[in-house]
Design brief:
The complex is a heterodimer of chains A (95) and B (485). By secondary structure, chain A is of the alpha+beta class. Chain A has helices at residues 5-14, 24-42, 73-77; strands spanning 62-63, 83-84, 87-91. Helix content of chain A is 36%, strand content 9%. Chain B has 485 residues and is an alpha+beta fold. The radius of gyration of chain B is 30 Å and the shape is elongated. Classes of the chains: A alpha+beta (95), B alpha+beta (485).
Chain lengths: 95, 485
């Protein structure tokens, strides 16, 4: 699978990772090798194989519809860099 | 029903599908034990899971799954016994994890359909593509501080059902009819309260246009924020006309997301496709695939209430109501129950008429819904009995109704207290009839030429008795006296 600098820059932007211009070529090469390896894995015929969706055959743990949590605003806001009137404060996200 | 936009170069057709977000009625959130209560103090209904704290694991609320299945059955849809929760990745401050847990390739509910009724009396099927479960994001408040945004995570993690329709809608009216019907179904099922003002039912519309007769689809735009029944039709119509204008002037419609501005009644661009999100869905490794037991689905199916379509058909069949009246009465389950309680053992058509004209009118004027109606169904029934028994004229019944609505008292008590019992005693009416005839010799002359003038005399007698006389009896007596005069 071909991978170009633009795609790598786009993936970085989507993941909100600031990648300096000079690192793009190196990263493109690294990611291309990983994808090549995946391509190699694709050669295995898995037509008849059920995808593995769980490591152990267990049924999911489920919750009943009961209020058992919340009402802990102090703890929730404790790590907030900024707060106001019980809210988190973040940089303005609209114009 | 055909709705076209007549352009300068010919006629255009609308092609529209809807995406609805319906908040699930549940006590706790989809993946945490925090409360879903609306309107609480900011950030007080938030668990560490909802705040995206590191190491927290989502645990599925089984009741929310039940609600989604119940809704799917109400939409006559296929229930998928195998479904998968996936992560939809995007960054926004009110989404603490940086992803929303949703369903993508394997939704819990597949194809279904909803029947809508249109103003010309016809019905139409609108296809349901799918319904999936997902968590809601928090709320951003942009207007409290001039240079910052405030975040309240109370809504973060509340269960939503995203319902997607096929592009079967061909007129703005159909979109409104669909939303009304969907809302009724959800409320009957008790899976969503349908409150558009509080945002528990939200609608986005995908709109495109094409030449009438064309089978190809045009480029579509997605309109966000169409959050009242009133605006749905306006937003879709505005957007369709905008696209026709662009196409007719030789332009191309850009695939983009547009926001409906309800104050100006226009749509404006939010983001174009180049900036469109790439959500990079993948199965959430924190959650196992959801596998349902067919018996679980059947248990829910067996517990479904009578839904609006079935109830409407029964009202037509059992009570002899017109399709229109039945449709009006079943729109809200509470109204339908109210009607049935009042109609039992009575002339159901009359009961329906009273509810639709008098009761709805009074409720509207008072700004009340049926749940807070001051009159009980039995009381309205009794009022109609009094008319039926000839104790009360139709006109007086309306006056009594007004007092009942005001005071919540029984009609018998009001009638007795105010001396409103209809006079059916010929001996009591005879002198009044005689007097009216004697006092109006010129009208008597007119009557001889035109017997219809008797209506005028009836009016005079009714006036003289303050509406208490039995009109049939008055007419009989008048005829006798007029012939003699």
């Amino acid at each position: 699978m071909a991978l170009d600098r633009e795609t790598v820059a786009r993936i970085a932007r989507l993941a909100r990772i600031a990648v300096p211009e000079e690192e793009l070529d190196g990263l493109t090469g690294e990611l291309a090798r990983i994808l090549e390896w995946i391509d190699q894995l694709q050669e295995v015929d898995t037509e008849e194989v059920e995808p593995m969706r769980r490591v152990m055959d267990i049924t999911p743990h489920l919750r009943a519809d009961e209020v058992t949590d919340g009402d802990c605003r102090e703890a929730i806001l404790k790590n907030a860099p900024k707060r106001f009137d019980g809210y988190f404060v973040v940089p303005k996200v609209v114009e | 029903m055909s709705w076209v936009i007549e352009g300068e170069t010919g006629a255009w057709e609308l092609v529209c599908g809807l995406e609805i977000h319906a908040q699930v009625i549940s006590k706790a959130k989809l993946f945490s034990g925090a409360s879903t209560e609306f309107g609480a103090e900011p950030n007080t209904r938030v668990s560490p899971v909802d705040a995206g704290m590191p190491g927290m694991l989502p645990v599925l609320n089984m009741f929310c799954v039940e609600q989604a299945v119940r809704t799917g059955l109400g939409l006559r849809a296929r229930i998928n016994l195998f479904s998968v929760f996936e992560r939809k990745n995007y960054f926004y401050p009110d989404l603490p994890n940086g992803y929303q847990i949703s369903q993508y390739a394997h939704p819990i509910v597949g194809r279904g359909s909803v029947t809508i009724e249109l103003s010309d009396g016809t019905t139409k099927e609108i296809g349901i593509t799918r319904l999936h479960l997902e968590m809601d994001a928090g709320k951003s408040i942009h207007d409290r501080l001039p240079d910052a945004t405030l975040i309240d995570l109370n809504r973060s993690g509340v269960a939503l059902m995203e319902i997607v329709t096929e592009p079967d809608i061909r007129a703005p009216e159909e979109a409104v009819a669909f939303m009304r019907k969907l809302r009724a179904i959800l409320r009957y099922l008790g899976t969503c309260d349908g409150n558009m003002e509080e945002g528990s039912l939200r609608c986005d519309a995908n709109v495109s246009v094409r030449r009438v007769g064309s089978a190809e689809l045009g480029t579509r735009t997605e309109i966000k924020n169409v959050n009242s029944m009133r605006f749905i039709a306006r937003a879709i119509e505005y957007e369709a006309r905008r696209q026709v204008e662009i196409l007719e002037s030789g332009g191309v419609v850009e695939q983009e997301t547009r926001l409906f501005d309800d104050r100006r009644g226009v749509t404006r661009s939010m983001r174009t496709k180049e900036e469109a999100h790439d959500y990079r869905y993948f199965p959430d490794p924190d959650l196992l695939p959801l596998e349902l037991d067919p018996a679980f689905v059947e248990r829910i199916r067996a517990s479904l209430p009578e839904l609006p379509d079935e109830k409407k058909a029964r009202f037509v069949r059992e009570y002899g109501l017109s399709a229109y009246d039945a449709g009006v009465l079943v729109a809200e389950r509470e109204v339908a129950d109210w009607f049935e309680a009042a109609a039992r053992g009575r002339d159901a058509k009359k009961v329906a008429n009273w509810i639709i004209t008098e009761l709805f009118g009074a409720l509207n004027r008072a700004g009340l819904d049926i749940g807070r109606c001051p009159i009980r169904p039995q009381q309205l029934g009794r009022l109609l009995d009094l008319v039926e028994e000839g104790k009360l004229s139709g006109r007086l019944a309306k006056d009594v109704f007004a007092v009942m609505f005001e005071t919540g008292r029984d009609p018998d008590a009001i009638v007795e207290e105010r001396g409103l019992v209809q006079v059916t005693d010929a001996a009591a009416l005879e002198p009044i009839v005689e007097r009216v005839v004697a006092e109006n010799p010129r009208q008597v002359e007119t009557y001889r030429k035109n017997p219809k003038v008797i209506g005028w005399f009836v009016g005079q007698v009714m006036k003289a008795t303050r509406g208490k006389a039995n009109p049939q009896l008055v007419q009989e007596l008048l005829r006798k006296h007029l012939e003699r005069a």
